[in-house]
Amino acid sequence: MIRDYVALDLEMTGLSPRKDAILEIGAVKVRDMEVTETYTAMVNPGFPVPEHVTELTGITTEMAQQGREIHTVLPEFLKFCGQSVILGHNIGFDFGFLQQNAANMGKTFPDMAIDTLAIARKFLPELPSRKLGDLCDHYQIREERWHRACDDADAASRLYQKLAEAFFEENETYFEPKKLTYKVRKDAPATKIQKVYLNDLMKYHKIETNVALDLLTRSQVSRLTDRIILQYGKMIRGD
Fold first, then answer.
1. Which 3-state string (H, E, C) describes 57-108?
2. Which CATH number goes with the domain that contains 32?
3. What is the pTM (predicted TM-score) of this model?
4. What digits encode the pLDDT tens for the residues 171-188?
5. Contact in structure between 7 and 164 (CB atoms under 8 Å)
6. Domain with 217 in it
7. CB 116: neighbour CB atoms within 10 A?
8. Is residue 20 domain-shared with residue 45, that is, in the same domain?
């Protein structure tokens, strides 16, 4: 059984690794089934946090604005993970965001992983739900906060250990790391016209950000521009 791994969880602004942004990264490093290090970082997406995301996670736009850029956070997190096996609940979803952002920087993310959701689906088909919180209730695993990255990462790690206690014997292959795949669509850099328009739009609406716009990709600038227009409106010439 794998006893050394990094359990991780992300909070994001949406469901698309290419169009949406990572808001928060949380992880616990486990060695011989004991947590030895933790990692948590808030990421500034460069645009307002959607209301439904705030309702789910408690992360507000003001909190996100205090975070760092993904270009700073991700290399730091890659160093934390090293070549460890990664673990999470529906880990493939988080992996897509990590791999897409890594690819945008010319990097790759570790791709050998254990998915607690897949294990739970195999061995606990009778449960009405296999969401992380419901499975933790089933095993009486308690966390201070749900839908915050580091707490959910720790919960996934503890869930894995409970599942292993119950089902590992005679079912070893289901607990082996599997190689994850994600088809990266490396995005082109934003065009000069895009960046000039976005900069003018932010000045027009008096929006401040510490995100380096020059580092954003074409789709990221397009997404950010659309969000600002949706929330604040277009520029009216002559104002």
1. HCCCHHHHHCCECHHHHHHHHHHHHCCCCEEECCHHHHHHHHHHHHHHCCCC
2. 3.30.420.10
3. 0.85
4. 999 999 999 999 998 778
5. no
6. 192-232
7. 26
8. yes
